[in-house]
Design a protein that fits this description.
The structure is a homodimer. The first copy, chain A, starts with 9 loop residues before the first helix and ends in a 5-residue tail after the last strand. In chain A, the strands form 2 sheets. In chain A, strands 2-1-3-4-5-11 form a 6-stranded parallel beta sheet, sandwiched between helices. Chain A has a 6-stranded mixed beta sheet with strand order 7-6-8-9-10-12, with helices on both faces. In chain A, helix 6 packs parallel to helix 7 and helix 8 packs across helix 9. Helix content of chain A is about 40%, strand content about 20%. In chain A, strand 9, helix 10 and strand 10 form a beta-alpha-beta unit. Chain A has 11 helices and 12 strands. Chain A is an alpha/beta fold and about 325 residues long. The interface between A and B is large, with 46 and 45 residues. Chain A binds a DNA duplex (16 and 16 nucleotides) through helix 1 and helix 3. Chains A, B: Keywords: DNA-binding, Transcription, Transcription regulation. Chains A, B: This is LacI family transcriptional regulator.
DNA sequence: ATGAAAGCGCTAACAA
DNA sequence: TTGTTAGCGCTTTCAT
């Protein structure tokens, strides 16, 4: 180690580099000077090997979700993770999990190649990596679909609260025949958003039977809306579990000659580009995607470093008022 | 190395693991069996340290572009990179370059922590990392803004060809007063798309002066279209350098009471969600974002491994016909 | 508070 | 074809 030319031993240089408190200030300074002069950069591999710490965090994307890169929510989440990690000494390692390499990924994770893992299971609620828990710290994005014995760490957005806020807003503006286009019930966001709507409807003594289910696509939203209108022509508002389905509802509403928000108020969820470009601009529930990524990364680092931390976080959502409700 | 309990030396195990051809088949088999039984996973750090190869590829995102995660093009590009790398032994390392860590990133790259780097400079054409070339293999996404001495490796999409195809389509459908809403001319895509339009206009003896410039936002597209209409009310078609600006043009056209595509045909570029959800659905030029990511990753790996390769690739774009032209 | 010395787990000459 | 022998560059007891 050339930096030892600062007149001290390699061990001392190592101490300085790692911020050991047991080094004389003067020595610290001269070592730092030598480091600067020699433009020294510690070798990561050697450090890992000797310390048995990798300073690497894995971001696991289930293959089925590889396409969700196209999902702005996911993209922002990754951005949040990267942003938080940029301030730390950790590196991000993206693993796309595919059938071909499922065992490979698991072995990689358990092979001591990373200090912890982040799993994005937003859509499926699949926490199959839970088995890693106990062996390797893992933080999930999105709550597990079903509560598990070994409560995994996770960060989620307040889907229920967001849906409730949207529904309350609708009621607050005088709507009474409020329908909802729900998402798949085997996905936590789909389930929670329906649950939030239902809770508020009941609390206000309103009919909570106007439920149609879609699969988060525009087409399914249109389809669901048509069915809803057929069942109850008097609908004066609809809460869709995501923006795409809300846009689909727009289409069905237009077909039936109804105006938004004049005849029917519409609120979506996600606040993605569909909401902004829809006409009229869609009132929707915004979720802190970047913040979720940051929170996940932060939580994982806290766990890895044995610092105090929550076991899970639920981030607040906000209603974004535009023209549709 | 426990696997040596297969009755051979550590060196032989290493050879088997690394697929050396100089090992007796029988031994290979027994070693593999031992590996399986002992559930052995080679330690990455040790391997890196000894071989001086990291099997890690950095993906550098200039901070100013961190937000471009929201850009579907970028998201798909990352997906492509990850998909290609999933089939190799390389890991992906995302580095978000910020002012705070600019030197840090550079040192990290030069500190032997990665085998190569991918730089996404799509929007700016900034190839400031070119200096890394020669030290570390670097492949850029998007051509450099100005040709450089040490021609860097890059993968680009055929912006000029896409623009030309769009313009030809317009001419082919009988349009003659064709305007264009160009992007910033200090960004390669902005420049090349204008250039493609101009080339075809001239080749067909048409007026190539109907140019207005925007900054790739919806608002700038509307603004540009208004100006164009003022200069030449007889415009019967417009090619916008991206979909957002095309949507902006829709707005200006609607304000002036013109129909799309009846009075004015419109073609965009990118084929993102704006194109699909616009009404009427926007005819646009689609670029292979995922393919670009894959190509970048493939090229970099070829360079790293000293295999034969191109110095740069330009991927074809395709015209996606929808309702606006 | 600092140095000496022993590895971390693997690869890569060099021998055999 | 296989084994031997050195390290790769750093951290970390253990002395001092």
């Amino acid at each position: 180690m050339v930096a030892a030319q600062a007149g001290v031993s390699r061990a001392t240089v190592s101490r300085v580099v790692n911020g050991s408190p047991t080094v004389t200030p003067e020595i610290v300074e001269s070592v730092n000077r030598a480091i600067a002069e020699l433009n020294y950069v510690p070798n990561r591999a050697a450090r890992m090997l000797a310390s048995r710490r990798t300073q690497v965090i894995a971001l696991i994307v289930p293959e089925s979700s590889a396409k969700i890169f196209a999902d702005p929510f996911f993209a922002q989440l990754v951005q949040g993770v990267a942003l938080h990690l940029a301030d730390t000494e950790y590196m991000l390692n993206m693993l796309i999990e595919s059938e071909a390499n499922s065992g490979k990924t698991r072995r990689y994770l358990l092979g001591g190649n990373v200090d912890g893992a982040l799993v994005v299971s937003h859509h499926t609620g699949d926490h199959s990596y839970a088995q890693l828990n106990g062996t390797l710290p893992v933080v999930y994005g999105g709550r597990p679909l079903v509560p598990e014995d070994n409560e995994p760490y996770f960060v989620d957005v307040d889907n229920r609260g967001g849906a409730a806020a949207a529904t309350e807003h609708l009621i607050g503006t005088g709507r009474r025949r409020i329908a909802t286009i729900a998402g798949p019930q085997d996905m936590p966001p789909g389930f929670d958003r329906l649950d939030g709507w239902r809770g508020v409807m009941r609390a206000n003594g309103l009919d909570d039977s106007l439920v149609a289910q879609g699969d988060f696509t525009v087409a399914s939203g249109a389809e669901a809306m048509r069915g809803l209108l057929e069942r109850e022509p008097g609908i004066d508002a609809v809460f869709a579990a995501n923006d795409q389905m809300a846009v689909g509802a727009y289409q069905a509403l237009a077909e039936s000659g109804r105006q938004v928000p004049g005849d029917v108020a519409v609120i979506g969820f996600d606040d993605n580009s569909f909401a902004e470009t829809a006409s009229p601009a869609l009132t929707t529930v915004s979720q802190p995607a970047v913040g979720m990524g940051q929170a996940m990364a932060e939580l994982l680092v806290q766990i890895i470093e044995g610092r105090p931390h929550q076991d899970h976080l639920v981030l607040p959502t906000t209603l974004v008022r535009r023209a549709s409700a």
